[in-house]
Write a structure and sequence with these properties.
By secondary structure, the chain is mostly beta strands. Among the domains are: about 50 residues, no CATH class; about 50 residues, no CATH class. Helices cover about 5% and strands about 15% of the residues. The strands form three sheets. A two-stranded antiparallel ribbon has the order 1-4. A two-stranded antiparallel sheet has the order 2-3. The protein has a two-stranded antiparallel ribbon with strand order 5-6. It is globular.
Length: about 140
């Protein structure tokens, strides 16, 4: 056996351009939220397919009490996801009662969003876990 027998040459790997600056999305990214209200109407809907009642507040997408969950209008099959979120500035509550939310992947798995900084709760319910499936490798929340 020669080394060439184990080398895959086609199809060639797709080339993408990185973001112009650190923290900017690469050229093939689908931006679902950019801090503007226009993209909320363009990309998001409630679970019944109606316009979302969530609002833009200080550059963040904020749930209006009683408005329920939202989802993207587009369907995604194979993807790499980058999520950023803010925990409440005023710390209140403990365990799962402290800034608890989540991002569902394809309607099946939930990436836990929770203020886990100095907050005792079950391992597979910490921020970044696949909720009650897999614990995160680290507690990446900060003060």
């Amino acid at each position: 056996m020669t080394p060439q027998m184990t080398e895959i040459m086609e199809p060639e790997v797709t080339v993408i351009e990185p973001g112009e600056q650190v923290g900017m999305a690469p050229s093939d990214a689908v931006i679902l939220f950019d801090g503007s209200s226009g993209i909320i109407e363009l990309e998001w809907e409630d679970n019944r397919g109606n316009p979302t009642k969530w609002i833009l507040q200080d550059g963040a997408l904020v749930c209006v009490k009683g408005s329920g969950a939202i989802r993207t209008k587009r369907k995604f099959n194979d993807f790499q996801l980058h999520i950023e979120w803010r925990a409440p500035a005023e710390v209140s509550g403990e365990g799962q009662g402290r800034g608890n939310s989540g991002v569902y992947l394809q309607g099946l798995y939930e990436v836990q969003v929770l203020d886990s900084y100095n907050n005792k709760t079950y391992r597979n319910g910490q921020a970044g876990s696949l909720y009650k499936q897999y614990a995160p490798l680290v507690n990446a929340c900060r003060k």
